[in-house]
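Supplementary Text 2. Reproducibility record for the structural model of the 285-residue chain.

All settings were left at their defaults, and a single model was retained for analysis rather than an ensemble. We include the record here because the model underlies the residue-level annotations in Supplementary Table 4.
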Amino acid sequence: MTLDATATGGRTPAGPAQTRRYLMCRPTYFTVEYAINPWMDPTAPIDTTLAVRQWEALRQTYLDLGHSVDEIEPLPGLPDMVFAANGATVLDGRALAVQFRDPERADEAPAYAGWLDRAGFEVHEAKHVNEGEGDILSVGGLLLAGTGFRTSHAAHAHLQEVFGRPVITLQLVDPRFYHLDTALCVLDDETVAYLPEAFSPGSRAVLRRLFPDAVLAGMADAEVLGLNAVSDGRHVVLPAQATGLSAALRERGYDTIGVDLSELRKAGGGPKCCTLVLREREATK
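Retained model, structure tokens:
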């Protein structure tokens, strides 16, 4: 792990950190035995022990930052279950369960829904294909919802009914960035970072209108899944290889923490893929 929490040159930091509760799944059974995105090559060697070690470093990073981490038990035969972000969308104490596009991941859905139900969240059944926080990101009072490869457009309307928040549809066009969280990172309630080339012209126009001060990532950083990052509003945990993006974020006053998840990247995953945010209902005053 490399900590880049360097001085911000006298600038006011981006904002206060928000303590978060995360759900993660240890990659006990991680491997690449099928190909459902361009990153996956079943013929390439996989070091599961290294994947576990890298995952543990990510988990410890969150704990060191003051966040809490719950763990769901990994199940044999589900090598992608480590990518907890795909397990649900959780807001205001409610959870929208997922329906995976690919049959290889189908059994992950009831495992995550069951855990969330036992944890006290109000679980809503999926009506259409959606892959959780892989394609659904909360920013301010909005939900940004990706489509084009995994989550169906029809799921966006159901998302709005479940959570009662405006949903902004964003069309993904590059199969390497098959989930929204590989092409866009929410930095705080007002700011995002994204790769323009990953979106259709209309979606790029929407993003420019909504986030005129966004951090624009370059292709080199996106190709190491640099945008598959986790921000608490002040600290941004991102792949250590995304050095250009890290520098750009520090220029904006964010503290960046680089982690090496290169083994999990062989399945198309990074820090955000491994991390489901558990947003509980706020206490009424």
